Sequence to fold (600 residues):
Amino acid sequence: MRERGSGAPGTPGPRVPSLRRNRMGLVGIGLLLAEVMAALLAPTLAPHPPLDQDTTRRLKSPLTVAAGGARFVLGTDQLGRDVLSRILYGARVSLLIGISAVAIAAPLGVAVGLVASYYGRTVDDVMMRVADIQLAFPFILLAVTVVAVLGPSVGNLIVVLGIAGWVPYARLVRSEVLTLKGREFVDAARALGGGDARIITRHILPNVLTPVVVIGTFALANTIIVESSLSFLGLGVQPPDPTWGGMLSDSREYVTAAWWLWVFPGAAILTTVLAINFVGDWLRDVLDPRAPW
Amino acid sequence: MVPWWYVGRRVAHTALILIGITVVVFWVIRLSGDPVLLMLPADASQQDIERLRQSLGFDQPVHVQLWRFMERVATGDFGKSLRFQEPALPLVLDRLPNTVLLALTALSISTLVAIPLGVLSAVRRNSSWDYAAMFVALLGQSMPIFWTGIMLITVFSVALDLFPSSGSGTFRHLVLPAVALGFFSTGRVTRLVRGGMLEVLGQDYVRTARAKGLAERGVVYRHALRNCLLPVITIVGLELGSTLGGAVVTEMVFAWPGVGRLIVSAIFARDYPLVQAAVFVVAAMFVLVNLAVDLLYAVVDPRVRYA
Fold:
């Protein structure tokens, strides 16, 4: 982790977030809000029940109007289920798991980072070794194995992805605190009789929250990719519940026969993750303009 | 010259992490309570359960089990694969070259694309080139590997019939999986090269090089790029971790016979001794590669502080 403010002096051009970047941030926020609304309102918005099978209307192409007037805007899958409805319900799964996992990982990592860096020495050593050990396992591999052992329920996925995601926050907070610890305002707080707990929560924590929000945003994007990867492998949320990764897994046998089966769920993942990454970039520019990248 | 105590400390640190990995691999199959139930089908009889429990030593106290497990791992013994009835470690090592080949090709592709793209982006900062490069980088990070894979198969195997969609053995088999896997890490490496270049371009020696009238090309490639490439080595070493993770998914999409596919099929077959061996090998490889990168880095860059 680089130290803040060590960005080279005289870097060409002033570092003002350009309008174009901000525009991408706005696009990201807009897309994301639309997505959250779509997920929340899925039961109202979905034109068909997501599990409603009917093999007489299987693999209908997009914009098909079935006998009886039922519309399938994005087509139907190999069991005759409406693709649009399944994508809407899939958004619920992805966003619920992604947001909940980050909501577990971020506080956990921040707490570990604060404790490790504030107390230093042995506590710090032990916690950073534990982080090294965890980082030795590729995230997906760890998630695949633990979820397979515990069983692939939504709750287990949230807990596993949440607990496995603490390391980046802890490392970030740790490096920030190490630079903050020697600053005058911390000395001043101590001179005024502030105890450890008070100094950590009142004086140090507010100063590290900004970069935490930024990496939390990128972590959300990554968690959604990992969740969809697990569903794709058949180790995530189990069928028949609709997930984007699961839909893509099913589509593999129909790559040419039914393009809509892999185009739309994939586009849903791409749009979501891209939107979140746009927001992350924008937040980084606005909240942390000195970050060198 | 790298001081010997630095080498010694890095090696000791790595050994400690390897021990930690072993403990995690031991615990992971015990997370659900009874690992024996995990390894048997739901309709297994009480007799079968007891027999397997005894043959795997799971009837012993946990600390005894852990100690025995560590002893066996130290000699490379992860027990027998339940499905193949063969020692698990050789089965994994058999598949390892395939995964290494895939991961290294993917990392080479992403590095070769990322360096010019990152340099261009930094040199032409805030130009349309910069935005285009950053958008491609973001796209790579935002597309799940399996979707990239399905698209590559649809276009290059099914429609154009240029490359096989699955299997291994020839160079042509390697192309699509390596591209799918490489595209994902291209984004991150590009951003880091760009960040590193931006920082280096602001340094005094770059200003000096410009001031003495060097052509911009010389400044960028001779003075700036060379100095920002060293951190890139470290990043690529760390990137190996997510590439190995991505390899699990890539191998499933393209039926590539590597360790990742072995792990997933072993999970479905409830063959947990094999899962343990494979997960250990992947994690150990990552740690050893990063030890090598750290030591190499210290040799190559005299400015490294041995903190």
Notes: The mean pLDDT of chain B is 87. The two ends of chain B are 16 Å apart (CA to CA). Chain B touches chain A through 61 residues (CB under 8 Å).
